Predict the 3D structure of the following.
Amino acid sequence: MKIRWFIRYGGLACLLLLLYPGPAAAYLDPSAGNALVYIAVTAVGVVGYVLKGIFYRAVEIWTGRRRSDERGRSCQDIVIFSEGKNYWTTFEPIVSALISRGQPFSYFTSDIEDPGLTIRSPLMRGRYLGEGSAAYARLNGIRCRVMLATTPNIGTAGFPLPRPAGVEFLVHVFHAPAGVAYYKKGSLDAYDGVCMVGEYSRPAIRHLERLRGLPEKELVCTGLPYWDVLLKRLSDRDEIHGRGEDEMEPVAKQAKRRTILLAPSWGQKGFLSCYDSKFIGTLARADFDIILRPHPQSWRTEPALLSRLKRYLSAFDNVTWDEDSDPSHSLLVSDILISDTSAIRMDYAMIYGKPVISLETEIGERDSFEIADLPPEYMDSLADKICVPVGRDRIDDIVEVVEEALREGKMQGMEDVRRRYISCFGCAGKQVAEYLVEKSVQLSVSRRDKAEGKEEAHDVV
């Protein structure tokens, strides 16, 4: 009794002493203080995460079963891994489709602001993994039959996330209407399956497999899930404004001034790095409104470049910056797009039917990208069919190029291009979800057959 009393009240006394705000004869500068607060908050989060995992594991051991639905399917049959909120539009249609068909699954993310964490469904097990190496370490410890990710380079040399040993089948889904050409070398080498936007990606992937002596991946055409989201938003807006579904005209502003959306890629292949920003000032001085939307990755990797550009453009009151993770508003309200290698060009042309100007850029360190190992006949020419190319020799005439493209108006032949290049237009999320479920069932049956075969062999012996 005395020992129990001592543990209870002695522990409480120690805790109060630790929490007592006594004076400290020390100086703590603001930067060090911020670092200590960050470390403390991270430590609390890690401890909470570990305790939560221990609790659920203890429950599983105590009850003798894992969390599953009434049909006995484990939440770890299917896992979706997201790097953050910027990829939610890709995963949202897939998540909705899995829930609609009653399939349990896990959704792991390395972004505390990921909208996927707000979904409340008994079928979806959402979990924040933390950031950086902590998230990768936790993800590396998962066990599941099928894992879906947009992340290139999983399992490649030098990438911090190895292929998780407990994942039986690793599936890549594209988050943009593009192939593998501008992926880093080896980006998909560790994957077992690829959900392709269309058949145009197959020759390039097969060529790289043969070149590197890799086993053939399972390739399926499922379309582009985030286009499901863009199409729905466009349809909802059309209904509000009383437009018919058969009208695929761009939603343009009925004002005299036209709006240009500038949406560069990031890094050396983005036009902010390749072109003098004076051409943006030239457009701003013309009779246009400008929306500048840098790639989300630019805010992380090129802050100095963006800061200089903001200072330069601060003199123009007709220039606005779009820092939203969701580009749909800017896509809707603008009349023409200027980009470079970014896949937003295909969104703009194929969903909204508006003109696209593509600034030609040179890829730095070309040998580090898959394009270096791809012959010309395996390169997709989708962008060539929908963009007006502009090189450095014409950048001084950018105002005239924009005015000419606007006069031509709506993009022609987009329906034919979509039919040829894009699979499952408007229903990609459902197709990806069905593939994941079918693959999970296939692996489950295969494992059971192997187990039964071993038992029969043992009985014979």
The chain has 16 helices and 13 strands. The radius of gyration is 26 Å.
